[in-house]
Amino acid sequence: MKEKTCQEKICQEITCEEITYKDRPLPYARASITQAERDAVLKVLSEPNPTLTQGERLVEFERSVAQSVGAAHAVACANATAALHLALVAADVKKDDHVITQSVSFCATANAVRHCNAVPVFADIDEGTLGLSPCSAREAAEWVRNAEQPVKAIVPVLMGGGADACNAAALFRLKRKLNCLLIEDAAHALGGYYEPEQQQPIGCGRYADVSVFSFHPIKPITSAEGGVAVTNSERLAERMRCLRNHGREKRGYEHDEMIELGFNYRLSELHAALGVAQMKRLQPLREKRRALAEHYDALFDRSPLIDCLRPLQRGLRRHSAHHLYIVALDWQAFGMSRRSCMLALQRRGIQTQVHYIPIHHHPYYRRRGVCEKPVSLANSERYAEQTLSLPLFAAMRKSDVERVVATLEGLRQVP
Ligand SMILES: Cc1ncc(COP(=O)(O)O)c(C=O)c1O
Hints:
Layout: H1 6-17, H2 35-46, H3 56-69, E1 73-77, H4 80-90, E2 98-102, H5 108-114, E3 119-123, H6 134-146, E4 151-155, H7 165-178, E5 181-185, E6 193-195, E7 200-201, E8 210-214, E9 227-231, H8 234-244, E10 248-251, E11 255-258, H9 269-279, H10 282-301, E12 309-311, E13 325-329, H11 331-334, H12 338-347, H13 363-366, H14 378-386, E14 387-390, H15 398-411
Parallel strand pairs: 2-3, 2-4, 4-5, 5-8
Antiparallel strand pairs: 1-9, 6-7, 8-9, 10-11, 12-13, 13-14
The structure holds pyridoxal-5'-phosphate.
The site of pyridoxal-5'-phosphate has 14 residues, from helix 4 and helix 5.
């Protein structure tokens, strides 16, 4: 019999790993781990003299991520929050500097700015992509300029793993004009593209100076915890590597010298080994999620919910990393609040999430001087009220998608 190709084996592993959630709680996300990946981690521990940190798996993991996105350098860290922080420090973001970003994100995006004692300036999102609106970012930059402050960086978020080449190009022009760095929070977006036809993977460096991916358990692929910053700048990569390891640099054979105040943001070999093994399934897992997202779209297109539920980011289906499947609901027309709907779904064994409440709504960010909101955030506020993320992960089946849609249809209260 013909030997199975590597890709066929990978696809078979994914299929074997699928379990039915018919009579079980359906989480909104779940990591997909195969036996080969478990073995890769155990192998590190089974070596006679195991190197548990800063070894060859780290180098392999970085090489694999850099190659997959077409970047010259990759710097792996303990998590993506650490990687974002390193990128901002490497970009010389300091106390009271201003960084333009979006409020619709996980708090880590703005926290990385605050860890530099700098000020996040929130601009609005683009409704189609849920990323930073170039128009609103320009307005925010104008406000910062009038306040006679420099903008040190722009940090767009590739929400749910989707990016848009036109918006990325517009933000690139803005960063050129402001003479600052563009650091992409691509925590959701490994495996996605700005433009598939032109072979522009997210992280290739065409638009951003640095892109940061997360390998948290529910991200496109995982290293349990982990984050990777990719860049084409040798200077930024070297500075991030040095800062990741306490600010130390090799000085000859004998010793390292600490040349600036850095951090311990290193990633262990166990995490790196899992990351290397998962990288082999990056595109098959993404394809699986894409097929599930398209199944949701097709079902919602012919659903009676069409007047109150709208799948978001549909224009990005072909090229997103498909980390999330996000819908916007008109809760009044649906006949119940989001909270009641999430509880009712939970009681029926379906977990959902809100990605995200805007960062400026968190109590910490409501404090004076912690952030700036100089422009209208109308899209962000509307999105935050309507949004709901439905279950999406590679081990789901199409029947699970059908169950989610049917359950939502059953919950709708018709007056
Ligand atoms: C948009 C975004 N940025 C940054 C992070 C931080 O990632 P990590 O958990 O790897 O630090 C997350 C994690 O959920 C995220 O969703």
